[in-house]
Specification:
The chain is α/β, with parallel strands linked by helices. The chain has 14 helices and 15 strands. It has 3 domains: 6-75, Winged helix-like DNA-binding domain superfamily/Winged helix DNA-binding domain (Arc Repressor Mutant, subunit A, Orthogonal Bundle); 79-192 and 357-382, Nucleotidyltransferase, domain 5 (2-Layer Sandwich); 200-352, ATPase, nucleotide binding domain (Nucleotidyltransferase, domain 5).
Length: 393
């Protein structure tokens, strides 16, 4: 005989009701009962509980379809805050949002990432947000941290561009702040950010290019991580046999030829000094030969890498998040022109609309779902992230 856990059923129904309120934006008890298939007494009890938890609020009287006019309810998106952090190879960026993804604050700091100081850096950043954040019922409900490396079960397995491998600072941060901490691969977060804030494509790959090259893969609306989080590490696929040495141990890896870091290092070597991306971009726009050579190299190797991805995963959409495609006109078109294979089957290759904010939006999306106990599949239908996420409130 199967024993039904009444508490579990109650939690399941409460999640179902909350999801419907978020989806509809404005809804009555009667409509919740009808759509969710729950009796009116159950719905009334759940709505009362959600009001007491400050997750929904009564917003007035709706139009009548016969009989008494209904009381309407909406999601209380300002009940709490979500904080996301992205640790790049020479920067830490961060974003604070409300529970619908509406942006409150964004910060970016250039900093040398060191194993011995990263925990204190993060504690300082989080403390600054706690002090400056608006007052809400729940405060900060979760903190996500994007890592440029391989993550499995909240542990950094490998981080080739900074020495954070096996460093377990998530537990230390949770103890310090008593806030749930989620570590995730930066490219995976970027894919989630693009998926829920710029497109609604069921099958997409987001290629994130910076110090290295990674990809977040969405298959049938779900993030694909592979065994122990190793999927999407396209930067360590070999494009040039016996080529340049890579920190991963192989030779000729994709990111040694097409990452922003490797290309800027090559251009800086040519110039005999450190060069910024803007200098490279300006030189390219004035048709300087070596700058053109650098951008052409990016296009050439990016087309090879994307060809391999398309033929491996057959995505509908490929999004490239790189300064080379976001800021230099014509690079996307030239990459597509370089894809000659008749096997390629996709709808579009686009540059990112979100840029450096993509992993931060993806991180806040994870925090919010975890807090509201909404699963990833249901999130496809309710569009929890607000369309005005780019506005600072």
């Amino acid at each position: 005989m199967t024993i039904v856990d009444s508490h579990f059923i109650r939690e399941l129904n409460e999640s179902k009701v909350l999801e419907m309120i978020i989806k509809k934006r404005l809804i009555s008890r009667a409509e919740i009962s009808k759509v969710c298939g729950l009796n009116k007494a159950t719905v009334s009890s759940i709505v009362k509980s959600l009001v007491q938890k400050n997750l929904i609020e009564e917003v007035g009287i709706g139009d009548s379809k016969g009989g008494r006019r209904p009381v309407m309810f909406r999601f209380q998106e300002k009940a709490g805050l979500s904080l996301s952090i992205d640790i790049g190879y020479n920067y830490i960026s961060s974003m604070l949002t409300y529970l619908d993804g509406t942006k409150i604050d964004y910060r970016n700091t250039t900093v040398e990432i060191k194993r011995e100081s990263i925990l204190n850096e993060l504690i300082t950043i989080i403390n600054n947000y706690i002090k400056a954040s608006p007052k809400t019922y729940y405060g900060i409900i979760g903190i996500s941290i994007g890592i440029h490396g391989i993550i499995n079960d909240n542990e950094i397995i490998f981080s080739p561009n900074y020495n954070l491998s096996k460093l377990n600072f998530s537990e230390e941060l949770e103890k310090h702040f008593n806030i749930p901490i989620v570590l995730e691969n930066e490219a995976n977060l970027s894919a989630l950010g693009e998926k829920f804030c710029s497109t609604n494509t069921a099958n997409l790959i987001c290629i994130s290019i910076g110090s290295g090259i990674g990809s977040g893969i969405i298959i049938d609306n779900k993030l694909f991580k592979g065994r122990k989080g190793f999927s999407g590490e396209i930067g360590h696929t070999i494009l040039v046999p016996h080529g340049l040495e890579c920190p991963c141990g192989n030779y000729g890896c994709f990111e040694q030829y097409a990452s922003e870091k490797s290309l800027l290092m090559e251009y800086s070597k040519y110039k005999g000094r450190d060069v910024t991306f803007n200098e490279l971009k300006n030189a390219y726009n004035t048709k300087e030969n070596y700058a053109v050579r650098i951008v052409d190299k990016f296009i050439h190797f990016m087309a090879q890498g994307i060809n391999n991805l398309i033929n491996s995963f057959n995505p509908e959409l490929v999004i490239i998040n790189s300064k080379f495609t976001n800021e230099i006109d014509g690079t996307i078109e030239k990459i597509e022109e370089s894809l000659f294979s008749k096997m390629n089957n996709y709808s579009a290759i686009n540059s990112s609309k979100l840029g450096k904010e993509a992993p931060l939006l993806g991180g806040n999306y994870i925090n919010i779902l975890n807090f509201l106990n909404i699963n990833e599949y249901e999130a496809q239908n309710i569009n929890i992230m607000a369309p005005n996420h780019n506005e600072i409130h």
